[in-house]
Specification:
31% of the residues lie in helices and 32% in strands. It contains five helices and 24 strands.
Length: 418
């Protein structure tokens, strides 16, 4: 009985270990689809790895660049002192009439360019014209009387000559000849007086002509009208009237060619400034515009309140943008060294832009978003942190500074901030 029980238990255990057919068909790896799935997974992994390798190989390399510049024979002049001031005009005039009169025409406006002698305004000239005609008539009358006395004198001289000849032959008395000579002398004196009166009349006519010409106001020099101070119908006079209804000027003219900068230099540093010293002016209105200038003169007086000395600075380049009373900053420069040698051929690049590749000195030049490798032969002469490249590089080319080892010819690059 005991042996039969053991055989039953073993049979039951074998049944439990038996795998059902349906379970076997559903078990993983029991069908032919298993190898295909594994193959697809392997292919995907290979594609992802290849894409990563491609992206890594074509990633833009960040670099910094510098511009190749042409060398110059002389060095740059450094600023030794800076001062502030204003643009001023050496030739500026408020134009007025030299007589008192009423304006009948004003021919200028602000901003007009005028030439020397151009008519700016006219005054009422009716009274001066009448006076001129009167004195001219008096002058003409005086000259007519001179001519009349001249004729009388000529006749008297002829009469005296005839009487002298008759006296010699005893036909007339000596008294008649003496009277004839006296008449000639009197007419000569009268002619001289009449000529003096004629000259006086001419002088009066000249004065009247000048007063008449004063009715026309003309530009004393070429320039630009900056203000218009009077209108038609107003009274203008060279003298200021107490009531304030009389204008003393028609307008103001500025000679733009005479513009310069007046700056106040601290008296503690005035010893650094010399006449003729080069300078550079920058207007407050145009901070990026540098104007070449030079020192004209140092005014020999100091401002006690500000402890400054005025310095006149001339602008070497005239421009319509420069107008009077503009604020300016002036940098006084050192004297530029005079060139002792000729300008070398080639361009200057930072020394860090030159690297070794395969035993050769090369420079990487920016070409769009890529770089091109160029073989160079640097000159032996050094220029501080720059090196001279006689060939292969042109002025204005952008070269890579400190190129990394991974940078090759044709590599994609990305310009980074220094």
């Amino acid at each position: 009985m005991a042996g039969q029980g053991a055989r039953v238990d073993n049979a039951e255990l074998l049944k439990e270990l038996r795998i059902d057919r349906h379970q076997r068909e559903d078990a993983p790896g029991s069908s032919g689809r298993g190898p295909w799935i594994a193959g697809i997974v392997v292919v995907l992994l290979l594609l992802i790895g290849a894409a990563g390798w491609w992206l890594l190989g074509h990633r833009a390399i960040p670099v910094q660049t510098a511009t190749a510049v042409a060398p110059s024979a002389g060095g740059e002049a450094g600023a030794v002192l800076q001062a502030t001031g204003y643009v001023t005009a050496r030739r500026l005039a408020t134009v007025s009439a030299q007589i008192t009169g009423t304006l009948t025409a004003v021919l200028i406006e602000e901003g007009d360019h005028v030439e020397k002698g151009q008519i700016l305004a006219r005054l009422d000239d009716s009274g001066f014209k009448a006076q001129l005609e009167a004195v001219k008539a008096q002058a003409d009358s005086a000259h007519a009387q001179v001519a009349q006395v001249q004729v009388q004198l000529t006749q008297s001289m002829h009469d005296a000559a005839r009487l002298e000849s008759l006296v010699g032959r005893g036909l007339v008395s000596k008294q008649s000849a003496e009277q004839a000579r006296s008449q000639v002398a009197a007419l000569r004196a009268q002619l001289n007086a009449q000529q003096q009166q004629a000259r006086a009349a001419d002088a009066q006519a000249a004065v009247a002509q000048v007063n008449f010409d004063y009715c026309v106001v003309r530009a004393p020099f070429s320039g630009v009208v900056t203000t218009k101070d009077a209108q038609v119908g107003e009274i203008i006079s060279p003298l200021s009237a107490g009531g304030g209804f009389t204008r003393t000027g028609v307008g103001t003219i500025v000679d733009m060619d005479s513009l310069e900068v007046d700056v106040d230099v601290n008296e503690a540093y005035i010893g650094r400034v010399k006449p003729g010293m080069p300078a550079e002016a920058v207007l407050d209105a145009y901070p990026d515009w540098k104007i070449a200038a030079h020192v004209v003169a140092i005014v020999p007086t100091a401002d006690r309140g500000k402890a400054t000395v005025k310095v006149r600075v001339a602008l070497e380049n005239k421009d319509a943008r420069v107008v009077p009373d503009m604020g300016a900053r002036v940098s006084f420069l050192e004297e530029k060294p005079k060139p002792s040698v000729s300008v070398p051929q080639g361009v200057l690049v930072p020394a860090t832009a030159i690297v070794q590749r395969d035993g050769r000195s090369v420079v990487f030049v920016l070409d769009g978003k890529q770089v091109r490798q160029r073989t160079v032969m640097p000159a032996t002469q050094a220029y501080g942190e720059l090196r001279l490249l006689p060939s292969a590089i042109k002025a204005g080319d952008s070269v890579v500074v400190s190129p990394p080892e991974t940078l090759k010819d044709g590599s994609d690059v990305q310009i980074g901030k220094p």
